[in-house]
Amino acid sequence: MAREFRLPDIGEGLTEAEIVRWLVQVGERVEADQPVVEVETDKAVVEIPSPYAGVVLAHGGAEGDVIEVGEVLVTIGEPGESAGPGSGEAAGEAVAEERGDTEEEPVASDPAPIVGTLGDEVETLRMSSPEEGTTPAAVKALPVVRKLARDNDVDLEQITGSGPGGRILREDVEAAMAARADGQPGEQPHEAVDYEPVGAGHGVYDYDEHQATEAAVGEAAARQSAGPRPAPEAAAEVGGRRQPMSRLRRTIAANMSKSWSEIPHVTTFDDVDATRLLEVRRALGERHGTKLPIEALVVKAVLPALDQFPEFNAALDGDDLILHESKDIGIAVDTPDGLLVAVIRDAADKSVMDLAGEIRRLGEGARDRKLTPDELSGQTFTVSNIGAVGGGHGTPIVPHGTVAILSVGAAKLRPVVHDEDLAVAPVMPLSLSYDHRVIDGAVGRRFMALVLENLEEPALFLAG
Fold it and tell me: Whole-angstrom Cα distance, residue 243 to residue 228?
């Protein structure tokens, strides 16, 4: 009996995924729990195993297609069996089995349409004109696109769809959001320098070896777009060519726009004499026979400050501040596909060497796109590193859902004063951005002062 396996929700609030690569082709046999396809969500590329054994009768989409949760991903049956409309009853039974439904519950007899083949199946949204109140306007858009518009207060009636038959695509809504954000830039916070949308790092810069560590730090992704698309004729006029952004790059751009437009940022700056920090890093590396990612020491130095100032390890929810009990620190990794934020769970329970091992593991997994959605979301505080590319001070963007981010620049030799004597030492720039709705400037300076004290003398946090 042919069974249709539908795309499950494999992440927090997943609504759709893009088919990256079919691992089992039509006509080939697949075993239960064998990976059958790779799909890309907003942050991760994951393998989805087949719940059934049998022969793949049909794919629910081609590589590159986007399908929604609940749509047919793959049809599996026996050799010679049909995957046509006749398999709909089997599909309903399979879905009922997965949900634990009773036999009395009705199931759909027709498989869900595949995105891109809507035809007459496209859902039409009827909306009344706010001025006349009686004139309906037909809007063609998928449910996921309408939800995106609702969540961001975008009026679909004001958008001209660029899809087939005038259908409004996700890109159309994202362009409208970006255009609105560009038209309302807001006031620059009083402490912030010129806006530089770095928001990501590639590993702390080693001032004496001039090379990046194995993992990086920064912020990642949610759901808006960075800017409107130019019209094809406009691109042609300036001699440019259109290059679609990857799904991950669109997600990064979306998160940056959402954070920058919704969070009132303030950034405070300082420099730390990193002489002792780098000495300790070198000594630990020699003792354990490995190169220690400096991110491990930076995270360890931040943890006592999060204990003393719990509002930095928090999230704003309406009029309430949620103070997190665990400290899940976001570490971003520079991958060929773009920046990904990997999360160190319960960082306060780990030693420096444990943190180093976790940073390496997460870095490798992110570069290979093998991390799970849970490993790529839910940070409570972020340490962003722009030092790997020689960066100094910056204005890191606070990741949405958190209230603060610390950016670490490149440690470089600079003149410093020690006990009224001029000396040369490795100086590491620090930039702390925070949500001014939650944190006042004085509290931000006190938090930074404690982090500086810990970084200048690692014994203060290593002894704890």
Answer: 13
Residue 105 lies in a domain: no
Residue 123: inside a domain: yes
26 and 131 in a common domain: no
Same domain, 26 and 90: yes
Query: What CA–CA distance (Å, rounded) separates 80 from 56?
Result: 11
pTM given for the model: 0.60
Q: How far is CA 388 from the centre of its chain?
A: 20
User: Any alpha helices (H) in 124-185, and if so which ranges?
Assistant: 143-151, 170-183
Residues 6+ apart with CB under 8 A from 440: none
Contact 382/219 with Cβ under 8 angstroms?
Answer: yes
CA distance 154 to 72: 30
The rounded distance, in Å, linking the Cα atoms of 19 and 28 is 18
Task: Pick out the chain residues at pLDDT < 50.
Answer: 86-137, 184-229
In the chain, the number of structural domains is 3
Span 172-184, pLDDT tens digits? 888 888 888 766 4
How far apart CA 386 and CA 217 sit, in angstroms, is 8
Quick one: tokens of 460? 């203060």
Catalytic residue IDs? 436
Would residue 381 count as lying in a domain?
Answer: yes
- pLDDT tens figures, 182-210: 664 433 333 333 323 333 333 333 433 33
Residue pair 51/32 in contact by the 8 Å Cβ criterion: yes
182: which residues sit within 8 A by CB, 6+ positions away? Answer: 227, 228
Domain match, 169 and 87 both: no
